[in-house]
Amino acid sequence: MKIVQIEATCISLPLNTDLNISGGKYNRADRVYVKITTDQGIYGWGEAAPIPQYAEETMESVKFIIDKYLAPLLIGQDPMNLAQIHEQMKVIKGNNFAKAAIDFACYDISGKALGVPVYTLLGGKYRDKVAIGQSIGIKSIDHAVEEAHKYAEEGFQSIKIKIGIDPDHDVKTVGAIRERLPDIPIRVDANQGYRLEQAIHALSRMEEYNLLLIEQPVPKWDLDGMAELCRLLRTPILADESLYTIHDAVQLIKHKAADIFNIKIMKPGGLYPSLKIAGMAEAAGIPLSIGSMIEAGVGTAAGAHFAAAVKYLEYPSDIKGPTLYSDDVLQEPVRIEKGFTYVPDGPGLGVEVDQEKINHYKVDL
Ligand SMILES: [Mg+2]
């Protein structure tokens, strides 16, 4: 089987809420949907979910890299040979989100060609559904408490509170939510917002409210700081932004700079390298949470297949992008209900893209 066409389409989807994190605020999601067609008529879909406030890629850069560099390299290649697809793509440095979209589409094609779900290609599944939490952006204490309560009522298994701009406000917000919801697991995510001294001070106070985990308290490059917090605090420290590539995983393990890995399949360039990170984490005894770049339907399906196939998924995951959108681009949405995302079962990614929706939300650059 050979790839004959790679089409990258930029779309902009409306979110149903403003997202405000340490790093920026946004209310639309720019996504790139990638359709790869083969000489056997089998096609697959991928998605890139660049959030410029978080990653070094944009919708524009993803489309440009795919159209100008990746597509010409990959036309004529066998999409089922993921190892070689990734080798070829190494000619272009970085741009992992663009590569992830190609990776998802190749897995989708491979599954369809073999008549099996993508999780089978990843080794099979440990679970049929994935526990997810819901996130609360940085906002007034009253609004944060109200929102936390609403999510708990909706059945989410945990609450993730965004922190990292004002330590004092953060401690008060977490305290107020804990008072209202005495039993819900709370994770806090600073998105690299604190300096080490701020982190030590704020988080040692915050720990009193019984936290499930602390996500990326200090800048991604500060592995010494991460390691110090792992030693000082009793709450486990989760590496998110510090963990992009398979090489980052090695550094985090060497520095003892993370108690938990947050694998986002977009960051290392797709499912193939993400599986390698999961293997390293398993060998090092580091449990996982599977994050997301709040992908729309296709990326969410890919995340669900991945979360099904990894062993030590011990913490709530973030595979919940579609809950934050006013609309999606699938014919049938990925099932997300009462705090769980269900792993699709059809061949490939197990979802079908609605081409009319892609046309409707298309952005011309
Ligand atoms: Mg995070």
TrEMBL record:
Superkingdom per UniProt: Bacteria
Name of the protein described by the UniProt record: Dipeptide epimerase
The Mandelate racemase/muconate lactonizing enzyme C-terminal domain, residue ranges: 141-236
Family designation: Belongs to the mandelate racemase/muconate lactonizing enzyme family.
Taxonomic lineage: Bacteria, Bacillati, Bacillota, Bacilli, Bacillales
Keywords: Isomerase, Metal-binding
Keyword Amino-acid biosynthesis included in the entry's annotation: no
Database matches in SUPFAM superfamilies: Enolase C-terminal domain-like, Enolase N-terminal domain-like
